[in-house]
Write a structure and sequence with these properties.
The complex is a heterodimer of chains A (115) and B (113).
Chain A lengths: L2 E4 L3 E5 L4 E3 L1 E4 L4 E8 L5 E7 L5 E3 L5 E5 L4 E6 L8 E9 L8 E2 L3 E6 L1
Parallel strand pairs in A: 2-12
Antiparallel strand pairs in A: 1-4, 3-9, 5-6, 5-10, 7-8, 8-9, 10-11, 10-12
Chain B lengths: L3 E4 L2 E4 L5 E7 L5 E8 L3 E8 L6 E2 L6 E3 L9 E3 L8 E8 L8 E2 L3 E5 L1
Parallel strand pairs in B: 2-11
Antiparallel strand pairs in B: 1-3, 3-8, 4-5, 4-9, 5-6, 7-8, 9-10, 9-11
The chains are: A mainly beta (115), B mainly beta (113).
């Protein structure tokens, strides 16, 4: 079975500050990892994904994430946030085996950027 | 613009009533999914379909049913709604079974009273 834990339910930060949203996963097989963003009253939009290759993945809006297999983590980072980054962020895992093709989501992290 | 449409946008439903949430995609994706989103729980998979004519149960299937008569449509039915089914429902699709991104619709906000 696969599972995802987002370690912070809410992260407040000031504009232009760096931010890290933490995500840990568990799976007994190889994984594919995703970060999605949800703006208020909207559906989910893909930020970035890790399938294979380089462990540092760059996505849209200046976000990046690093896949760390030994620590089973996939933390999301941005060096300087904007007010417009205020949203809820979801980490998700797509593992092999019987769950192949299905996404398991974390509980979400609400990022609030203050002026 | 290609994508996923869901209807209705929102609905208030009396307990015990039957309701079908509609989902249509125009990307010719083989796989489709239904999730519910509840505060603090993230998104949980209700049912999925790997290809037209097949369906499967996700993490929280009880009280819901789906059908996949063709590639484009994947309706979700609540046979007899209960208040615990109050949630935001998202339909998603992906090209197939594999390490693919899923594309999400705008959601349906359902309140069961």
């Amino acid at each position: 079975a696969q599972s995802v834990t987002q370690l912070d339910s809410q992260v407040p930060v000031f504009e232009e500050a760096p931010v890290e949203l933490r995500c840990n996963y568990s799976s007994s097989v190889s994984v594919y990892l995703f970060w999605y963003v949800q703006y208020p009253n909207q559906g989910l939009q893909l930020l970035l994904k890790y399938l294979s290759g380089s462990t540092l993945v760059k996505g849209i809006n200046g976000f990046e994430a690093e896949f760390n297999k030994s620590q089973t983590s996939f933390h999301l980072r941005k060096p300087s946030v904007h007010i417009s980054d205020t949203a809820e962020y979801f980490c998700a895992v797509n593992a092999g085996g019987t769950s192949y093709g299905k996404l398991t989501f974390g509980q979400g992290t609400i990022l609030t950027v203050h002026p | 613009i290609a994508g996923i449409t869901q209807a209705p946008t929102s609905q208030i439903l009396a307990a015990g009533r039957r309701m079908t949430l509609r989902c249509t995609q125009d990307m010719r994706h083989n796989a489709m999914y239904w999730y519910r989103q509840d505060l603090g729980l993230g998104l949980r998979l209700i049912h999925y379909s790997n290809t037209a004519g097949t369906t499967g149960k996700g993490e929280v299937p009880d009280g819901y049913s789906v059908s996949r008569a063709n590639t484009d449509d994947f309706p979700l039915t609540l046979a007899s709604a209960v208040p615990s089914q109050t949630s935001v429902y998202f339909c998603a699709s992906s090209p197939g079974v594999g390490p693919y991104e899923q594309y999400f619709g705008p959601g349906t906000r359902l309140t069961v009273t």
